[in-house]
Amino acid sequence: MTPNLNDLMKQAQQMQEKMKQAQEDLAKAEVEGESGAGLVKVLMNGRHDVRRVSIDDSLMSESKEILEDLLAAAVNDAVRKVEASNQQAMKNMTGGLDIPGFKMPF
């Protein structure tokens, strides 16, 4: 019994629409990275755009280098969280199958 080509095309189109929606949802999702026990926080969306940076007032007396290091660490934390979120969403969508070379959302 051979599958109907029209049915296969419909399934492929539905999967493509689901993937597009998943990409849009992941791009909108926001995560918060932090460093310095929460004294520096970075809000980032799924496209790795930094939406907000929060630095506790107590750090304003610290050196520029310390602030730079804390900010870099918070951004790196947010990037790792975005990547983990994207990987989990992909696993959920593919039923746990790992598709080599396929990265979400883009």
From TrEMBL:
One of its GO terms (molecular function) is DNA binding. It is found in: Cytoplasm, Nucleoid. Keywords: Coiled coil, Cytoplasm, DNA-binding. Transmembrane segments: none annotated. One of its GO terms (cellular component) is cytosol. Residues 5-32 form a coiled coil. Pfam families: YbaB_DNA_bd (PF02575). Belongs to the YbaB/EbfC family. PANTHER family: NUCLEOID-ASSOCIATED PROTEIN YBAB. Binds to DNA and alters its conformation. May be involved in regulation of gene expression, nucleoid organization and DNA protection. Homodimer. This is Nucleoid-associated protein O0V09_03070.
